[in-house]
Design goal:
The protein is an all-alpha fold and about 130 residues long. The protein contains 7 helices and no strands.
């Protein structure tokens, strides 16, 4: 059976969020490294690890139908939402464009969080599990 639109939109939302995040960080890595007083390569480890975890969990949900992975991804999304509080400081340290794209990435993750718990998504994840 074809995946419902909610699951397809969920997957696209997570992947788009992570791509925006990585491009944003790579494009501003020099300024971020200087502001944090660390080397550029050290700075890149966290965002790439976060991307692997988020996309991996999203694919486990959208392709593997592992409903339990929703709860782990929900923790990642909650941490992102907590990060929204730091956006004004980031805008001051790195710049307004960086802050805008960071906010967009977080909002896409929030949208994914909503999409993965919609009734059509839940029903699809439960399908074939009752046998």
């Amino acid at each position: 059976m074809m995946r419902p639109a909610t699951i397809r939109a969920f997957e696209a939302s997570v992947i788009a969020s992570q791509l925006i995040r990585i491009v944003n960080i790579v494009a501003n890595a020099g300024a971020m490294a200087a502001a944090l007083e660390i080397e550029r390569n050290q700075l890149l480890v966290g965002p790439f690890a976060n991307m692997l975890v988020a996309v991996g969990l999203a694919l486990a949900i959208s392709r593997g139908k592992f409903a339990i992975a929703r709860w782990f991804l929900l923790v990642v999304i909650a941490l992102d939402l907590i990060g929204l509080g730091g956006i004004p400081a980031v805008a001051t340290m790195i710049g307004i464009p960086f802050a805008i794209f960071s906010t967009l990435a977080i909002l896409l993750m929030l949208a994914a969080g909503v999409l993965m718990f919609l009734p059509a998504s839940t029903a699809w994840l439960k399908q074939d599990k009752a046998d």
